[in-house]
C-alpha cells in the first residue's frame, strides 16, 4: 500500500529544479558556460508543464472518483424528517 498518492506535477517540478541545478553546477565547475537568461525558459517551461500535468491528473482523478461513487444524490439526508444530531 502506498503512503500517499502519486503526484506527477510535483515530480516534474522536482526534475525542473534538478535540471537547473545541473546547469549551474556544470557552469560552476567550468564544464560549460551557461548564460543567465537560459534559466528562464527552463524554469517557465518546466513549471508550466508541471502545472498542466497536475491539472490533467486532477481531472482524471476526479472523473474516476465520480464513476466509483455509489452515493445517490436524489436521496434525502434523513428519512425521519429531522436533521438534528443528538
Show the helix and strand layout.
Blueprint: H1 8-29, H2 39-68
Helix pairs in contact: 1-2
Task: List the defining traits of the structure above.
single chain; 86 residues; mainly alpha; 2 helices; 0% strand; transmembrane; transmembrane helix
| Percent in helix | 55-70%
Count the DSSP helices: 2
Sheet with the most strands, sense and barrel status: none
The tally of domains stands at 1
Using the alpha-carbon principal axes, give the shape: rod-shaped
Total number of strands: 0
Task: Provide structural commentary.
The chain is an all-alpha fold and 86 residues long. The protein has one domain. The chain has 2 helices and no strands. The protein has helices at residues 8-29, 39-68. The mean pLDDT is 86.
At a glance:
This protein is mainly α. The chain has helices at 8-29, 39-68.
Amino acid at each position: 500500500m502506498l503512503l500517499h498518492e502519486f503526484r506527477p506535477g510535483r515530480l516534474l517540478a522536482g526534475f525542473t529544479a534538478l535540471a537547473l541545478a545541473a546547469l549551474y553546477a556544470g557552469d560552476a565547475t567550468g564544464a560549460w558556460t551557461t548564460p543567465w537568461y537560459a534559466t528562464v525558459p527552463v524554469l517557465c517551461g518546466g513549471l508550466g508543464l508541471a502545472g498542466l500535468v497536475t491539472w490533467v491528473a486532477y481531472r482524471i482523478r476526479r472523473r474516476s472518483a465520480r464513476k466509483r461513487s455509489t452515493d445517490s444524490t436524489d436521496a434525502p439526508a434523513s428519512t425521519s424528517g429531522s436533521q438534528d444530531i443528538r
